[in-house]
Amino acid sequence: MLSVLIFLPLLVCCVLLVLPRGLPDRRCVQVWIATAAVELALVAYLWAAFDPGGGIQAEERVRWIPGAGVGYHVGVDGLSLPLVALTCLVFLAAAVYSLRETRRVRAYVCLFLFLQTVSVGLFVALDLILFFVFFDLSIVGMFFVIAGWGHGERARAAALTFFLYTFVGSLALLLGFIGLFLAATPHTFDIVDLTRENPLAGRGTYAGLVLLAIGVGLAVKTPTVPFHTWLPPAHSEAPAAGSAVLAGILLKMGAYGFVRIAMPLLPGSWRRYALVVVVVGAVSVVYGALVALAQTDLKRMVAYTSVNHMGYIVLAVGAAGTLAGSDAQARSLAVTGAVVQMVSHGLITGALFLLTGVLYARGRTYAIDAYAGVAAHAPRFAALTFAAAFASLGIPGFSGFIAEFQIFTGSLGQQTVATAVALTGILLTAALFLRALRSMLLGAPRLPEAASAGGFADLARHEAWSAGPLMAVALAIGVAPRWLLDVVEPAGRAVVGLVAR
Amino acid sequence: MNQDVAALLPEVSLAAAAVLGLLAGSWLPRRRQWLVAVLAAAACAVGLAATGIAMARGTEQGVFAEVFAVDTATGAGRLTVLGALLLVIGLSVETVRGHPRESEYWVLLLLTGAGTLALVGANDLLMLFAAYLLSSLPAYALAGFAKDPRGTEAALKYYLLGALLGTAMLAGTALLYGGGRGTLYRELREALPGAPFAVVALGLVGVLAGLLFKAGGVPAHFWVPDVAQGAPAPVAAYVTTLPKVGALVAGYRLLHQALPGSDVDWPLLLAVLAAATMTLGNLAAFFQTDVRRLLAYSAVSQVGYLLMALAVATRSDLAQRGLLFYLAAYAATNLGAFAVVTELPRARTLEGYRGLAGRHPGLAAVLVVCLLGLVGTPPTGVFLGKLEIFSAAVDGGYTWLAVLAVANTVASLFYYLRWLGQVFARTGPAPAGTQAALGRWAAGTAYTAAAVSLALGLAAGAVLPFATGPLLP
């Protein structure tokens, strides 16, 4: 079942590659949409059959390279299932959005199908090397998306920066994995076995170094300050669907790594260095928001709010490692909040990037001051953008509020100062979104030259049906979050229990 | 004394095919000289089959007074060398077809291949030196095969450096023989701990000099870029791949079998050599514009990673497996990249590859697999090789070396991506003439090599056991 979920897009990708050249572009995208829809249906089935209290489910374990301690081990639990579902949803949205893509469509579709396999595979991987394989391939896939379909020559430079930067991270991660592998007896890369064995318990400096390597690797991908500098250029040069996938899914890989690998496998060092994690998280929150405030380019601004939003996650997982001054309930609230924030950020920022793509398609620029009064031309676009921006700044009723509320409640007791500092991030994001919305959507209509001839057309159907459903799910989580929290909470408690041992 | 010639069937079949090919080539008309190529391929196939049978039966033995070991390392090395030789034959077809000296080319290739096989199994210092000569001398001739100024210069440089370091190797052999009262590794292992420190140290450095020359490691790497650039492309593919396999397996065996108890701190020496090789190779590759020079320096840096396994030869159980697997994966991946270079003989610079993806998507895909493979991107074979070798280095107490290797891997990404960037550039593609394809054989070899490179990673579970097993004592 899970293997089908992982490899179906790759299979479709291979079929598309061997089909004759005459295949119409639109048909390729339709195949992609159909595949993404099937994937979503499979996840829905998986979710329906999922028993929240049952630990890891739908497990598959096959010997792959037994000599090297590497196995093909996949499974879902309350941490990974929401992210797998998010992946399928965001890819479906990206597919629908790309219906009008005209540039080398087949290669484009194949790359995204490949990326979907990689993303789903990463979230269900229960073997460190399998995780690493997907982690690295996600970099390769996204490199080609940015370099091939980005905005011109600058995109190539941005793609190169992205590749080099995240590749450094992935290799640091690999070193950490090797450290874990060598410490275990018998040597193994299996996450479940390593979690049970806790091989680095009481190994002081060695364990600290392993955590440093893994932490840096994941922090680059998340990204947190000071490893975030690859993110804004990558986003501003990537095509809209690529940005949505990059922000919605690929960033989660780093954050997910903290709860899946760093916390359960290195509980002792995690507790010892939790304060460092908390500080990095709080700094990311404030710094990301402040730099976003200074942007004049809408897409870069949204990219920096990602740094801000991912900072909350890092803050929460750090707080979950601080035992003093907290009870298990608060810590598990923080972890649950972190996972919900991953989902929420994926939905909302994915939608925001798609909407930014709509803006660029009309006006050929992301500059905030090039637009004014867009709401008069395009009421539906404006409404959806308002909703996404408000959701992003954490207004109650959307998923962001649920996530951030849990994060702050869960972290305040043990990390009061850092949490208080991080709270200012909410104010800053509110300010920057309101400022951007006011100047772009309201006021006397003014459009950049590229758009003024044809006016600013409102959302086309494929645009509305890509960003719209993402926001609808964010709203559903915000209004009635139990169906998600029921799945995440037991897993959050389990992680907290593992960290505290 | 075991004199079982059948145990040496792979070596014998290559040598016999060389002799037969030389005779046949003297009488065959020029348009029929391709028969010698068929003979060469058949010899490789026989060798592969014999190796497979020997490995399946698990007959480990030392033959001819133990000077030649037939064990796991020999078996894995033979598979790699013979498989790679088949690929080299495949990618040479168009380049030498109809050449006045076509049969000579195949004969030289077979002889140097046989020498490489002898290096892999050498269990004795004199055997090692004889294998060194047998694998080197035909390679000098191959480097100058085209008889053009560049090729001649390359061959001369290759020869002079080889002669110099060969002498050093012979002197080192003499010193070790003097210190250990024997040339067999087994005898040396017992006698060398009691020998004077300076004699062992100097002797080891001398022997290593020859092996480093073969492998293309710093400081004996100066010939690599010149030969890769000046020699015909298939020869460049050969010299950057196969001699490495022979030299590094030979070096591993020497260090592991003859010097485990010596008080010379050779692990540190090897670690420093590894660090210097990977770093200098990478730095030099950074701004190369000629693809063959770029690949040559990349080959140098790869030797650095491989030398890590030698540094921890006796300190980690993972070293041997990592080395043998990495060599196999590297051979397939490097030959894949060189096969593309051979297939596009007029595209000599990175600029010449501009827009290749539009014109030859298949070759572009091969380059993606092979260049990212050389970086160590999963799921190619080199990734697993790197994983094993890095693990071995950490396990053997050389974490700093593993960290340096990781840093170098990142640096190497830069120049491989520069190349790939040109391949996938959409504006201003290189003129069509620059990217004229040579023929089916080189292209087919490129596809095969890329597929093997991927398969080695995906099916590593089935391959890795072939590299796991003790060396013959």
The H-and-E topology of chain B, N to C, reads as HHEEHHHHHHHHHHHHHHHHHH
Give the strand order, joined by hyphens, for the main sheet of chain B: 1-2
What's the pLDDT, averaged over the residues of chain A?
91
Give the helix level of chain B as a range of percent.
Answer: over 70%
How many H/I helices of chain A?
21
Query: What kind of oligomer do you see?
Result: heterodimer
What structural class do you assign from the helix and strand content of chain B? mainly alpha
Largest sheet of chain B: 2 strands, antiparallel
Question: What distance separates the N and C termini of chain A?
Answer: 33 Å
Mean pLDDT of chain B: 92
Radius of gyration of chain B: 21 Å
H/E element string of chain A? Answer: HHEEHHHHHHHHHHHHHHHHHHH
- What is the CA–CA distance across the termini of chain B? 16 Å
Number of strands of chain B: 2
- What's the arrangement of strands in the largest beta sheet of chain A? 1-2
**Low-pLDDT regions of chain B:** none
How large is the count of helical segments of chain B?
20
Poorly predicted runs of chain A = none
- The backbone outline of chain A, from C-alpha atoms, is globular
Tell me what you see in this structure.
The complex is a heterodimer of chains A (501) and B (473). With 501 residues, chain A is mainly α. Chain A has a domain of 227 residues. Helices cover 75% and strands 3% of the residues of chain A. Chain A has 21 helices and two strands. In chain A, helix 4 runs antiparallel to helix 5 and helix 13 packs antiparallel against helix 14. Chain B is mainly α and 473 residues long. In chain B, helix 13 runs antiparallel to helix 18. Chain B has a domain of 209 residues. The longest helix of chain B is centred in the middle third of the chain and has 32 residues. Chain B has a two-stranded antiparallel sheet. At the A-B interface, strand 1, helix 5 and helix 6 of A face helix 17 and helix 18 of B.
